[in-house]
Amino acid sequence: MSKFDEIMKRSGYSRATVSRVINHSPHVSDEARHIITNIMKELNYIPNRNAVSLSTGKTKQIGIITSTIDDLSLTFMNQFMETAMDFGFQTIVYTSRGNKEIELQGFEDLRSKRVDGLLIVTCVNDPRKLKMYMEYGPIVSWQRMGNDEIPSVAMDQAEGYRLALEHLESRGYTRIANVFGRVESLNTQSRRQAYESFMKSRGWPVWAEAYQYSVFSSSDGEEAMRRIAEGPELPQAVLCSNDYAAIGILSEARKRNILVPEQLAIVGFDDIELSRILGITTIHNPIAEQSTQAFHQLWAVLGQQELQTKQLTYQLIERATT
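Given the sequence above, the corresponding structure tokens read:
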């Protein structure tokens, strides 16, 4: 006699009821769940995941697509994993290292039903190519995709950038430089447009010649600050791609005896813990909340249940660097 049949015999419940308990269905009484679960423990019964998947059509697994893993993406992914676990899902991380073919393996797993849905943290394939996979299961992205085919929980970073610009204006800074992320990213484009529109509306000079791109890490920030310091004129303030870039700029400025904020104000982005410790003015980016909303979007399809979400906003965190 199989262990499954033994559970049915001891509990007195039907095959359907035992299956519901094994598959964590809500459509079973607390009494039946308690009795069947205890017998499963006594028999050391472990459900075969493949069999469960075949019977339910669900793997209870979600794939996470990312090019690389850094501190910011890790924050987002950790929150997503915690939320997924609360709903009974496990996660599989597909790290591509920027390789388009490797990245597509995760999407092919969605097609072959090895995962129930996908979360895109960062991707390198054209979104127009990826959207075809949505017929096999739900996909949601943290990266801005530039179209409406793949839903995204990303916020328009131009809103946060304007908060930083308004803050610098209130402090009397008018000569403002920028260090950006990837030149082709939608976030960089939004930030640049916000900066140029803001400066022109005030009649202040747009320092397009001072734009620096691909500034991500603290070492990138140090190198950016060296170029700024060696330029023809020191700006009054610099807006950064993220807090790590701001940390590097602050470090190099101190090495060069440039007073912050008296000679150079610095504003980061994201509000990581180090920015608080180092006293860096920054824009709080609600990363964890965006992650939770990403799972909720998947759950609307996988669980066929809409969950209430709230409008997320950026917030200026004023500290010592301005």
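The radius of gyration is 25 Å. Try to locate this feature in the token string yourself.
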